[in-house]
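Intended use. Records like the one below are meant for learning the mapping from a protein sequence to its folded structure. Do not use them to infer anything beyond what is encoded.
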Amino acid sequence: MVEAGIDRVLIAEDEIARTVRRLGREITACYAGIDRELVVVGLLRGAFVFMADLIRVIRVPLVVDFISVSTYGDGTVSSGALKVAMDLEQTIEDRDVLLVEDIVDTGHTFSHVIRMLQSRRPRSLKVCAFLDKPSRRTCPVAIDFCGITIPDAFVCGYGLDFAQRYRNLPYVGVLKTD
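Structure written out for the chain above:
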């Protein structure tokens, strides 16, 4: 059943599950030989549902951490400056880091986060995004592990929200625009 406010299902539960398993296999193969735990960093809030499923299918030792950032000031227009609302609890220097994001859209905020983490001198830093919306990209972002490329539509569900609603939907749906 499609939730009120959602126009249509874009990605069904079974496709989400297949995508997460595929990404888990790719990430496991990439990090199979590391000598310390992989540090999996989730970008809050949207990535938490995807990341919870993803870490359960990665078959290498890992630890998790989270970061929450914003590029918005008091208004609705981006200030361009990165504000860290919640920082990592552990150091990532000389560690293998996997940054997990729910969706890469314009790439502005995400590219700021990548630069900030790179400045902390990890051994390696790779990016995993559940959804990629390249038609909206205005800032280049390299995605090492990409789940699904989607068209330019406002999507909700599976952790993605509209005004904090719809995160709990088990599918990804397109928001009604009327």
